[in-house]
Amino acid sequence: MRVVIIHAVWGYSIMRRLVFALLLAVITLTAAAPTAAQGRWDGKSRFTILVMGMDRRPGARDTLNTRTDAMLIVSVDPATNKIGVLHVPRDLHLAALDSDSLIRANTLMIRGEAIQEGYGPFYAMDTLGYNLGIFIDGFIAFDFEAFITLVDALGGVEVTINYAISDPTYPDMNYGIDPFYLSSGTHLLDGRTALKFARTRHGDNDYLRGERQMQIFKALGLKATDGSVLPGLLQQAPQLMESLEGHVYTDLTVDELAPLALFAAFVPVEYVVTGSLSGRYIATVQVPGTTERVQTPNRTVLEDLMRQTFGADYAG
Description:
The radius of gyration is 19 Å and the shape is globular. It has two domains: about 230 residues, Nucleotidyltransferase, domain 5 (2-Layer Sandwich), CATH 3.30.420.590; about 60 residues, LCP protein (Aminopeptidase). The strands form five sheets. A six-stranded mixed β-sheet has the order 11-6-1-2-3-12, sandwiched between helices. A two-stranded antiparallel sheet has the order 4-5. The protein has a two-stranded antiparallel sheet with strand order 7-10. By secondary structure, the chain is an alpha+beta fold.
């Protein structure tokens, strides 16, 4: 759901902000936490949110005991008028909070839920914060159905790729196979196809997959701030709220989301900085006591990435 908030920065007209406001209202009325702490953001300090796309299939509703399929750390910084967005690959391994072992990023929610029901998102926030040296204030999590619903409500999203995608073993929503192919060029993707585009990785790797996820999120932002979609959204609002119920989770309140959204709406696109824990920012290590080798953040250059993405005072 933070996808909409993050990428509302790609538009400036009054009509575009109205579109954004409508989407915000639908999302917050559906998912905002009425019992969460009020007013955690003062409008002047850095505020950081963990955005998680859950690998949760139809029928697995009302549970957070699930792997994540996409993870973004989004940080707004009023001091510099910037927004930083960091992609965390699902296969990255991190130091666990409750043991001396390494834990795969996409299993953080499951580990937290095993400790205590409802703790999954907070365990993910704390583990990432501990490993990356940044305090994470809140979270937003959504499942496949919420993603599909939002993309379709916007009339689809447009992406351009300079390579073809061939994934004959793409997994469908019920653990079967649904081959996915997409030619190079520009495409308008509906919700289900956009989900495939964001999830496929059998033809390349988890890091190119992360680039596609960032591309989809940017495309969502462009569409969400397009004034021409407003009439359709107004018509769909009641059904959209009903469809999203039980598919979106957050500890942020309406009072917190609204000013964050307003801030994001006025940030120039060139002040939105993106980064990814990939390339030289990861290191391959051997898991103690085994022959398994996994990828972890490269501590020698991690601070460089964090500074580039979030700014010199990212640690708060």
